[in-house]
Amino acid sequence: MTSVLSQKIAQLRSGDEIIILKGEGYLPVFEETEAIIAFVDGGSAICNDGTCISENCISDLIPTGRRYETYKVNGEAMRLWGLVLAARKEALDRDLEPDWSVPVSFPTEPE
To answer: Domains in the chain, start-ordered, CATH in brackets?
Structure first.
């Protein structure tokens, strides 16, 4: 996360409303669309309608200045967030497992 756009996305919070320009986002929107940020993960975010944004799929971040405390999140957005959480858990589990391919040296003398 090094670009200015990634940093702007990382500063978003759940409930912030943004405008996604026509043809941008992942999957690309068909027309200029107002969406609410549902989940933020570093320099990427998932909107309540299931559209994902990152520096790779949008050219500008246009916040509307509106913030919602309650909003609906569709099933696709929830499914995508579940995939993000599963990937995080897998990465964390991988880091916690010891590497048994390298023999551990134990002291030969009593402590």
So the answer is: 4-91 (2.30.30)
Confidence of residue 100 (pLDDT cuts 50, 70, 90): low
Write a three-state SS string for the chain.
Answer: CCCHHHHHHHCCCCCEEEEECCCCCECCCCCCEEEEEEEEECCEEEECCCCEECCCCCCCCEEEEEECCCCCCCHHHHHHHHHHHHHHHHHHHHHHCCCCCCCCCCCCCCC
Q: What is the mean pLDDT of the chain?
A: 89
